[in-house]
Amino acid sequence: MTIVLTPDQQAWIDEQAERGRYPSVQAAITQLLDERIMELDIEDDDLAWAKPLADEGLADIAAGRAMTLEAHRARNRARLA
Length: 81
Prior knowledge:
The structure is a single chain. The protein is mostly helical. It has two domains: 1-45; 46-81, no CATH class. 70% of the residues lie in helices and 0% in strands. It is built from four helices and no strands. The longest helix is centred in the middle third of the chain and has 20 residues, at 25-44.
């Protein structure tokens, strides 16, 4: 497959590879495509499976079965002390 980049895209990819952000131009393009594909897959997920879990968490909070972040951190500091 041949992909034609715009001059700006090519310059950006080349610069990123030269700076060492990616080991090569090919690696940069592959990683960027993989990341975008994953983003699109997440956007397309209907997340219906997560609703019962969210509802359970909200019920726990309403029933007082939750801990603040600060209380969690304090408990962990005490455990590590």
